[in-house]
């Protein structure tokens, strides 16, 4: 006898019950839940984009109140590991750049590091990134660098030019194929470009003059990377960075800001979206 498929219902798959890795010990339960969820996120057990169990499910699994779960969730949100979407739930949004940026911002402010010190580190890292890029850059990386050089020269407004400059530095860092180096370079370059935006403002003439004055240095850097010359690329990157830093330092009001840790703290609060 045949079964009428229209009358046959298939039960939806049941979501697996959340199981703690280990029972909660004595002490702060919220901290223990936070640590376990964080470890699962960082180990890939809860991949980016996945939805966390509901507050009720977590509370039942750990044998705690909803308030305790909410405290743990707040900690994960503050750490930029998850995002709570009202009416939908909590989702893993862990982003490596953001995680490192949060820690670096805290360290920079705590130690009252100034802009000059920060840019000095950026120069050294950019040199190393260029050296590795000369060894590891793909054909796609090289094509992109050619394109972004053109974008820098033809940008129609300050935002377009500054974004192209950021993309130029970021692609060299990415082409190094050293993940940690690339993340550090992106974080510091983001502050460097933001500094230029602040001092140059919305003056298209200032942006054009400043960008044009560094064209040869950028072109030489790309040529050394294309030539697979790691030492030449490192030296070209360091020379480019020194010239760029000198140009920014010569702008009005730049001198006081360059040695002010307070100014850097304000600048990082503006660029916190990194």
Question: Care to give the gist of this entry?
Answer:
The protein is an all-alpha fold and 274 residues long. The chain has helices spanning 29-43, 55-62, 66-78, 96-110, 115-136, 139-154, 158-175, 179-200, 204-213, 215-226, 230-249, 254-258, 261-270, and strands at 82-85, 89-92.
CATH class of the largest domain equals Mainly Alpha
Indicate the mean pLDDT: 85
Main sheet attributes: strand count, strand direction, barrel closure: 2 strands, antiparallel
CATH architecture of the largest domain: Up-down Bundle
| Radius of gyration, taken over Cα atoms and rounded to an integer in Å | 25 Å
SSE succession: HHHEEHHHHHHHHHH
SS field, number of helical segments:
13
**Oligomerization state:** single chain
What's the CATH superfamily of the largest domain, by name? Answer: GntR ligand-binding domain-like
Strand ordering within the main sheet: 1-2
Helix content: 55-70%
Strand-pairing-aware structural class = mainly alpha
């Amino acid at each position: 006898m045949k079964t009428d498929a229209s009358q046959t219902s298939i039960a939806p798959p049941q979501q697996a019950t959340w199981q703690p890795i280990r029972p909660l010990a004595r002490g702060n339960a919220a901290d223990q839940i936070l640590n376990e969820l964080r470890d699962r996120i960082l180990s890939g057990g809860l991949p980016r984009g996945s939805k966390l169990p509901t507050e009720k499910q977590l509370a039942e699994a750990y044998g705690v109140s909803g308030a305790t779960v909410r405290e743990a969730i707040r900690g994960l949100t503050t750490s930029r590991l998850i995002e709570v979407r009202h009416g939908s739930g909590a989702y893993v949004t862990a982003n490596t750049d953001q995680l490192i940026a949060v820690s670096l911002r805290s360290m920079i402010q705590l130690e009252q590091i100034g802009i000059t010190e920060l840019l000095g580190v950026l120069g050294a890292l950019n040199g190393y990134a260029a050296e590795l890029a000369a060894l590891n850059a793909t054909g796609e990386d090289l094509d992109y660098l050619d394109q972004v050089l053109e974008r820098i020269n033809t940008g129609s407004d300050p935002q377009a030019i500054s974004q192209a400059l950021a993309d130029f530095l970021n692609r060299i860092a990415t082409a190094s194929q050293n993940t940690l180096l690339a993340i550090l370079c992106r974080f510091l370059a983001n502050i460097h470009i933001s500094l230029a935006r602040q001092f140059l403002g919305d003056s298209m003439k200032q942006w054009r003059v400043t960008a044009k004055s560094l064209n040869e240095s950028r072109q030489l850097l790309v040529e050394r990377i294309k030539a697979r010359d790691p030492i030449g690329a490192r030296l070209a990157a360091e020379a480019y960075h020194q010239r760029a830093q000198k140009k920014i330092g010569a702008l009005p009001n730049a001198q006081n800001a360059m040695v002010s840790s307070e100014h850097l703290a304000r600048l990082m609060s503006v660029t916190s979206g990194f």
